[in-house]
Amino acid sequence: MREKELEKLKDYKYGFTTDIENIKAPKGLNKEVIQFISNIKKEPKWMLEWRMKAFNRLQNLKEPDWQKPKYPKINYQDLYYYSAPKSFKNKPKNLDDLDPKLLETYNKLGIPLQEQKRLNNIAVDAVFDSVSVATTFKEKLNEKGIIFCSISEAIQKHSNLVKKYLGSVIPLTDHYFATLNSAVFTDGSFVYVPKNIRCPMELSTYFRINASDTGQFERTLIIADEGSYVSYLEGCTAPMRDENQLHAANVELIALDDAEIKYSTVQNWYPGDKDGKGGIYNFVTKRGACRGKNSKISWTQVETGSAITWKYPSCILQGDNSVGEFYSIAITNNYQKADTGTKMIHLGKNTKSKIISKGISAGKADNTYRGLVDINSKAFNSRNYTQCDSLLIGNKCGAHTIPYIKNKNSSANIEHEATTSKISDEQLFYCNQRGLNQEEAVSLIVNGFCKEVLQQLPMEFAVEAQKLVGISLEGSVG
Amino acid sequence: MIEELKNTFENFNKKISKKNILAKTRLENFNKFAKLGFPNKILEDWKFSDFNRIISEKFKNINVNPDEQNKFNFNNYIKDFKHNKIVFQNGYYSQHSFEYESEDKVIFDNLKNGPSYKPNGSNSLNLLNNAFFTDGLLLYIKNGYKCKKPLVIYNIFNTNENNNFFNQKLIVNVEENSKLDLVICTINLNKVPIFLNTSNFFLVEKYGLLKLFYINELNNKDLNYNFNEINVEENSVFENLIFSYKAAFFKNDVLCLLKKNYSSSFINGAILAHNNDHHEIKTVIKHIGQNTKSYQKIKSVLDQNSRAIFQGKIHVDSCAQKTDGYQLSNAIIIDQDSEFDSKPELEIYADDVKCSHGSTSGSLDENAIYYLMTRGLNRFDAKKLLIKGFLQDSLETITSLEIKKFFLKKLEILLNEYR
């Protein structure tokens, strides 16, 4: 019985596809496609110009090649940059108009979109391929003045805010994938929390790639005005396919005076099969700016999926006394590769940052922590604490730690420590002795290893993440 | 600058290379160098030290003088402990004395006509060294011989010409079961700035022990790049202490290969950077054999607009099980204009390992200064005492008593000088 259950768990349970009619942009990356995307989204003119600027810039950029995980060249002309369910041509006004197939998909994923069905207090923005399907609890949030909608809607309805902040943290002229995203991004979430408002519920986005040969380029923009607080969750899955799919998202966070943003990710894209075939390339740019005094941005991520994960959620600590935090668990199994970490750029006085990174490597996987702590000469009395631990399971995997530490201020205090080890035989023996089998023992120990990070996740997610940690490592022992 | 160097090289090669084969490989090396140029910050290994910029700021032109200059009398610089010596003057071998050893067990030769080097690798300064080297030392410690006293290699410069460029090589083979304490002492007697570029190769065979120390008496306009490759075999030990002070630019590049089982290496460093200095210690330790051990401790103190860098890497091969790797870097920044950068790196492909690293940087502890001041020290002396204790931590790891005493004394003198 147990065996069967385990067998079921081992499979990527989100690997189904939804058979639904799609509207796609013509294949390829060119001005017409960008025009197409902009038209179908009924975007104002300035947005199209912005995209074109990014596209022009892209022509002069090269794909970066310094990272550890190497991948076969991506043919950008062979991708669909826009794919949406056909029923979306006229955007449904409410859930009753929504294609039942879509609803079913999200139910299957465990994310019912009907508000009354939701027991927990989370507002969801569901993104299916290139479009936002539904956003729940909108009215309730509206009462407080919080704007939570898809970014396409925000471009139309709140263009002042978008115009002001879009691209202010990740400029158009950033690296290749960020610029690519700026040119072709299709949808994503937009959050604005007004002054002195604590967002009463968790906001969340659920990303789903369904169509094949599609790249998903979403863009998230979160603005926390003075004295506000928001906690935001992000989850992702994709069907099992033999080819690699590209996911290049941009996430921008802006925290003004005394504001706090908490951004959590549970990333479970399809990681490819056990021979390393297929899977998602997850090349994401996430950056937050602590613009105001006493502001705080906290990133928490649980990275279990994707064939290649390549992302560095960063904090630019501009405001005095601002705080940046980064908690990460990256689990790689089979042929997965992860190169992840953070950048903490201290500019203001008395800024603090904390980095806790846990990497777990099993099978033939490679797991790299790469981080930067940069203390500017004006960042007096700033503080950084970094801890990176790696755990190796099996002798064919790799774990690497590459921190860059730059200190230009004598009053700053920087600490960095890292360890790499395997699960000791004594620990395993102790657990076995008490009746746990090998896999349960490993799962228990790994969960303990990750506890510091899992604690940072909101309650509902923590339970799920804990399970995910166990599942990702199934089959790696023995 | 490269163009000028090209002419210099042509003249040099004509003059010095009597053998054709040597002239040819020198040219090959130089051509490859010319293609690469001086290393700049685009290269990962030189990320924090833009050597191209440094050399073009400090050196307007580069002179190479292939003539053996007049020998001059030289009294021992180190008087604190008895030692054997080999003396090089302005890059050429001049004299030696092995008072304390049996001559047949310590064999050496100079590298004046010495072997030719293929242009391997992409380290452009090594290529430049291959192209320009004038002399060097080939040293063998024979099977089972344990040297009684340390060997000091004096590298004395008293050139009067500006911007002289020296290239040297050192090849040391510590054979099975033998032991050597090697002190390399570089002294620039004149105030004329020099650029010294050395490439050293060491082989420590089974059960061997090599201790390597660097003493630099350079001036604060001198540039020094020091590349060391060390191959450590079964059950043998390599110990290295890098004490880096003065010199405008000083980069110590250590590549240590722990090739066989039970080999170990201990690399400790102290950086005392002052007066716009730019110092870097870069280590790469490759664990290839099983049960190998490495230990690194680097302490840096920065003052007066100086810059110090530590780049350390522990690489564990997939077959290097039971590796024990440790790396620690601490830095104290005293003034507002100095900068400390570090990149402690772990690259691990084996699972049964224990590897850790730590890196900290900060200022002197005000509470500690206060404590000492309440005990009657003035602020300056309190600071000095704390810095001394901090750097001493890494000097104390020297296992040869006499040499340790010498270094501690040197530290004391240096701290007194920087008043």
List keywords for this structure.
heterodimer, A: alpha/beta, 35% strand, globular, B: 419 residues, alpha/beta, ten-stranded mixed beta sheet, nine-stranded mixed beta sheet, 7 helices, 19 strands
What does this 3D model show about the protein?
The complex is a heterodimer of chains A (478) and B (419). Chain A has 478 residues and is α/β, with parallel strands linked by helices. Chain A is 23% helix and 35% strand. Chain A contains eleven helices and 24 strands. Chain A has helices at 2-10, 31-40, 45-59, 100-108, 138-143, 151-157, 159-165, 176-184, 425-433, 438-454, 459-472; strands spanning 22-24, 83-85, 122-128, 131-135, 147-150, 189-193, 202-208, 219-224, 229-237, 244-247, 250-255, 260-267, 279-290, 296-303, 308-311, 314-317, 323-332, 337-340, 343-346, 352-362, 366-375, 383-393, 398-407, 413-422. In chain A, helix 3 packs antiparallel against helix 8 (176-184), helix 6 crosses helix 7 and helix 10 runs antiparallel to helix 11 (459-472). The mean pLDDT of chain A is 81. Chain B is α/β, with parallel strands linked by helices and 419 residues long. In chain B, 22% of the residues lie in helices and 41% in strands. Chain B has seven helices and 19 strands. Chain B has helices spanning 2-16, 20-36, 51-58, 124-132, 366-374, 379-395, 401-417; strands at 84-89, 92-97, 106-110, 135-141, 151-157, 164-174, 179-188, 194-204, 209-217, 223-232, 237-245, 249-258, 264-273, 278-287, 293-302, 307-316, 324-333, 339-348, 354-362. Chain B has a ten-stranded mixed sheet, with helices on one face. Chain B has a nine-stranded mixed sheet with strand order 3-4-6-8-10-12-14-16-18, with helices on one face. Chain B is globular. The mean pLDDT of chain B is 87. Chains A and B meet through strand 22, strand 23 and strand 24 of A and strand 18 and strand 19 of B. Strand 23 (398-407) of chain A pairs antiparallel with strand 18 of chain B, so a sheet runs across the interface.
